[in-house]
Amino acid sequence: METKNSVKHPPSNSPKPLLLDQYPKKNFWDFSDIFQSQGFWYTNPHLEAARDILAHFESRDDDIFLASSIKTGTTWLKALCFSIIHGQKNVNVKVNEEEEEEDDPLVKNTPSSCVQTIENGVYMTNPTPDLSGMPSPRLFHTHFPYSALPDSIKNSECKIVYITRNPKDTMVSMWRFFNSVRTPEQGPYPFDKAFESFCDGLYPFGPFFDHVLEYWEVSLKKSDKILFLRYEEIKRDPKGLVKRLASFLGRPFVNEEEVEKVLWRCSLDRLKNLEVNKNGSTAVGLPTNSFYRHGVVGDWRNNFSHEMEERLDQISSMKLEKTGLDLNK
Predict the structure, then answer these.
(1) Which residues are catalytic?
(2) What is d(CA 190, CA 125) in angstroms, rounded to the nearest whole number?
(3) Which residue, of 48, 111, 147, 170, has the greatest Cβ tally within 10 A?
(4) Straight-line distance from the first to the last Cα atom of the chain, in angstroms, rounded to the nearest whole number
């Protein structure tokens, strides 16, 4: 998506990156500067990672990519997909059993370490990582919009699972998340300023609606490649949606017991009470416990004024008009 002031990513064979002063720049919530490229906003490390990914990443046909804007259910999706792909080996545990089984990888590893975000956990620390030794199927996550993905992902037979969420709950979740990593001296970022920033799309990987629509439109044309999920749908019908997810990933469940095991293992209550998710930090220094809160639908009602609700609903209606997508259900 091009905008008047957007700057294209350097081509994958470009020997030199664009200078930062060539990108439109804004400040994000006193955390860092963000830069606009092809209509979306990135931190400088994400711009550098994008350039390296475009230049070096080669997708395999059996790769699986999880994609999302920020704060739309990413951690839950990582846990579910990892458990479906890798967590069903040598498992003998009853649903709701209090004792945490030793062979469950999610007991000792966070979802973010099980499924690394490629621009953060992989390329941000090494511009040319050797991924050839990773066993198939390789499971990655990205916050990049579809337009920023390398052609090797778009043109291969790899699968993409995209998750999104009601924009009002997304905005509140984002506000609470970034407040959780602010210092006591900084204090909470003002909600009204955060709301304006969200509406204007001025945050990493924003704007929200442009991000969603890129994946939505491709999913309509290539339903065998992109599975488009809404967080609220999974909450309403977890068994049905997880079965659909497993079938899309080529790992259909054998029986209902397997479905129950995955849902229990990946439940928010269980994950946030595992020791591995209570302490420590991610590859980019964020505390692991900041990724777990309530995960409820409709929490925005505790924060939005009537005027805010009307404004974001108007933006949503305008952006999603005639697309067939409704994010307010």
Answers:
(1) 143
(2) 32
(3) 111
(4) 26
Q: Distances in Å between the alpha carbon of 296 and those of 77, 84, 106, 262?
A: 15, 23, 22, 19
Q: Does residue 207 have a cis bond before it (omega within 30 degrees)? A: yes
Distance CA 200, CA 205 (A): 12
Domain 31-320 indexed as CATH 1.10.150.130: no
> Hey, what are 295's tokens?
């995960």
pTM metric for this prediction: 0.88
Tokens of 134: 């990773």
Q: Which residues contact 66 (CB under 8 A, 6 or more apart)?
A: 74, 77, 78, 81, 115, 139, 140, 141, 142, 160, 161, 162, 163
pLDDT digits (tens, 9 = 90+) for 96-146: 454 445 568 888 888 988 899 999 889 988 899 999 899 999 999 999 999
Domain boundaries, the chain: 31-320
The answer to whether the CB of 177 falls within 8 A of the CB of 69 is no
